[in-house]
Amino acid sequence: ISDLTDDVWYRGSTDCNDLLPSAYRKDVDELSATISFTQMVRSMTDTRDLNAWDYYCLARHHAIPTRLLDWTEGFIQALFFAFDGWDGMTKPCIWMLRPHLLNKESINDDSIIAPWGTRNLSKRAVDMWLPPIETKTATVKENVWSNKHPLAIYPSRSNPRVIGQLGTFTVHGFDKSSLNEFIRSRPNSDLIMARIDLVGFDPQETQRKLWYLGLRQGVIYPDPDHIVKDIRYSHNW
Fold it and tell me: What pTM, to 2 d.p., does this model score?
């Protein structure tokens, strides 16, 4: 699908289920969880320059259930995620998404939204997707935005994980349909999303090959715990 635009995002998954964010899969109290995370994490990292979107994305990277879905601008990073922890019992895959076309369908604006970089009404409009999620609309560039559908956003790369993963996000609105279900309902769905199913791979052999390609835990998750996992693997502990 890359012949029409260079802007393609990728999502690797060890099991090709519907693209539904964790807050909707688990039906959790997203607001309480993110507030607790925001209050507690301040004592553990430098958060002086973080805004609400930075906290929200950081919460997702540390496994707090949110309406965010992780994507990457790098195909090879998506390949890592497709096989990370894979035991051979499921069907891994890589999703491919054109974020500009998604936003054209969601808000009638083909821009990829950078929440931290928008101003005035645009900033207030995109904040409608932050928790708590409620039914809202706003007029931006003579278009009426509704926070019902998923939105492609470009996060501030304010932490090593987002940088190492070339991370981007889609954020769901108040509609709890999966992202692929929403896209299938659009007339040009084949231009917006595609999927590569990864079949015929052996878990151990695949992990070994990814290792020699440089796709390692400490690269994708640059912190001491994951560096130790790499050391354990290299020494066969």
Answer: 0.88
